[in-house]
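Section 4.2 – Deliverable D4.2 (structural model, holo form)

The reporting period included a commitment to supply a predicted holo structure for the target in complex with MGD. Inputs used:
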Amino acid sequence: MHPRTATTDQAGSVTRRRTYCRLCEAGCGLVAEVGPAGRIQRVAPDRDHPVTQGFACNKGLLTGEIHHDPDRLDHPQARAESGEFRTVGWDEALDGIAGRLREVIDRHGPSSVAAYIGNPGAFNALAGPAAGLFVFQLGGSRLFAASTQDCNNKFAISEVLFGSAHVHLIPDLDRTDHLLLLGTNPRVSKGSFLSVPNPVAKLAEITARGGTVRFVDPRHSEPVVGETVQIRPDTDAYLLAAMLHEIDRSVGFDAAALARAKNVDGLRAFLAAFAPERVAPVVGLDAGTIIRMAREFAAAPAASAHMSTGVNMGRQGALAYWLLHLLVLFTGNLDRPGGNVSSTRGLPAHGGADVSPDSFVRSKWGDYRPVSAIQPGALLADMINDDESPIRALFVVAGNPLLTIGGGDRLADALRGLDLLVCLDFYRNATGELADYALPTADWFEREDLNNFVQGTQPRPYLEWADRIVEPVGERREEWRIFAALGERLGLAPVLRPDSPDVMADYFDTQLAAGGLSMAALRRAEGGITFLDPTEPGTFLDRNLPGDGLLDCAPEILAGTFARAHQIFDELATEPADALKLISRRTLHTLNSALQNVEKLKRTRAADNPLYLHPVDAERLGVDDGGAVRVASAHGKLEATASLDPSLRPGVVAMTHGFGNQDTTGMPVARRFPGVNVNALAPSGPGTFDPISVMSHLTGIAVTVEPVAAGGGVETP
Ligand SMILES: Nc1nc2c(c(=O)[nH]1)N[C@H]1C(S)=C(S)[C@@H](COP(=O)(O)OP(=O)(O)OC[C@H]3O[C@@H](n4cnc5c(=O)[nH]c(N)nc54)[C@H](O)[C@@H]3O)O[C@H]1N2
Ligand SMILES: Nc1nc2c(c(=O)[nH]1)N[C@H]1C(S)=C(S)[C@@H](COP(=O)(O)OP(=O)(O)OC[C@H]3O[C@@H](n4cnc5c(=O)[nH]c(N)nc54)[C@H](O)[C@@H]3O)O[C@H]1N2
Ligand code: SF4
Ligand SMILES: [Mo]
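Output (structure tokens):
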């Protein structure tokens, strides 16, 4: 137990232990009150946390209940022939998995073993590395991750721009006069790639000092500061292109920026097609609005821009992220106070990514470019079903691909057909229901951790170490221990070794040494928090532009991305005026699929997954508030309950992902309130993802909506 993170009450029965929340990127400081027998009695916001200062949301405060949820996996389970799960010992589970892996590798080679690392892997310092190292050590190479559902476009473009997937520029919130936010709802989600506690309060500071906060979003989201420009879904790249076009023709590109850039003619050739007047009908805004947005951004003393999953999950998140950088650069706002700036990282970003056109994989499913070995999630079913080089064994670590990527029945069938599916999770979730083995893992309170994922995206940079504060319940184990035990059975020499006295130091010390730090130093720091020296703007491009120090405005690797942009533009321009588009909607009562077994949330608002639609559309389609609707896309269909939502742009409908637990016997609460899986409507397979970033397409999906007649049948004339 670490003295600096623990205090005990006078009676000595309750210990208050400091930790931080690992549900989202805000990383709120929490205090867990640990009672007799290691029972977590309460989780409260940590008012003494120097950064998050007592901010926390409803979800973080429920983590104690998840820790003690009786439906958690506390022992390994194996699926019997009958389909029933039975509890087995760790040795039986590990021997069984290792035996089956040997058979799979003998028959299909090591490339038939793959892993999928889910979103919570980002907040679990050793889980992702352990899974990746295991697959690579076996001789495999295929990794999948939730990043192809949320941010791979950013990784890919940062590689193109700065040679590293992990170098990102964030808005200088304290000094900006104008903040453009595309596809983010900080009130609900607290955002991504911009790690601030209480982001809404931060935005309010900008407007309070007379600045502008402008959201671009098809939905006028939960009450928040600033104004919202209601764009048509999946068209943000064209808005950004038109803003750049306008700035070039009426204001002029910033002279200092031009001196740092090359291939500006290539950029101008691309932008030529995207004048505000031509783009306006496609993005669903007046040309005048686009022109005003562009000129105000350019005229602000200091302007910054940020985009998030609402854009990332469209078809052209990579192009949008690239254009966003050029907008910031050519208005003189890149790496200047109040613009987009770099933040100090406590762990170095790996550089030197290959961004030549040769970095594309030429496959039977088309050319695509994996980022950090991450394969397209949209091809998971295809790669499992492939007859030449199939995936036959899959490890799912902290993820639930069955519900979180497109593919519906096709993906379910593929997962069912695997020779070996092993899920490492808190619960036997919907994907786990198809598994051969469901393995219980340690949670936030039961393991040591480090906030490595948010490095470089914090306005006030710090490393935070969290101690294990209670012993694991039952036989829960950390993921790295599970992979080490499997590795040993397969004759590998695991990199993360259970006999090591300090496995966190083994993995992180070399990286931390770059900043003069070590795990030992982080553990000694007050409250586990080590502040890093802030990075002053002004030298970013000198430090981060490889080669000749000039930013290539039309790199060869983006040629296909540009061609695809013209093609998608033509498709959008000829769409019928009454086409409906489905977008994603997060709520305060859900966190992807992860909180679906929390009874308290089900008793409030997350009992069902409605289809939100604008009253004007409801009227046109003959749909009543609360009535049943059938929603169909080119990829699947589902039935849901309609809920009228005037905050949507007409023509746009919305649903929440992470529901669809009607068969999840391992999560009985979730199963009682299953909702429907919106990703039954999402595309998967060749041609459905962005080749440059392998991002799935999960927002702006064309759908039709029709009322279902009372009694459940289809309405007949
Ligand atoms: N249509 C649509 N689809 C989407 C999205 C959308 O907006 N719309 N959003 C996408 C986004 S942003 C994301 S990140 C993905 C998420 O996709 P996934 O990562 O595939 O799914 P999650 O629902 O986050 O599943 C997390 C699982 O990890 C378990 N878990 C939690 N913590 C741990 C841990 O420390 N260790 C282990 N072993 N298990 C743990 C939870 O119990 C849960 O079962 O979904 C994406 N899918
Ligand atoms: N409560 C809660 N918090 C969460 C999560 C959660 O599920 N629930 N998930 C966590 C995860 S994994 C992530 S990655 C982050 C994500 O955090 P954010 O990226 O901020 O995601 P959202 O809050 O869903 O905001 C996305 C916004 O994009 C809008 N949008 C949809 N389509 C488009 C489009 O085509 N163009 C534009 N411009 N906007 C569009 C939506 O209306 C929505 O307001 O949140 C994290 N925090
Ligand atoms: S805002 Fe995010 S990090 Fe903070 S308590 Fe809520 S879920 Fe946890
Ligand atoms: Mo995410």
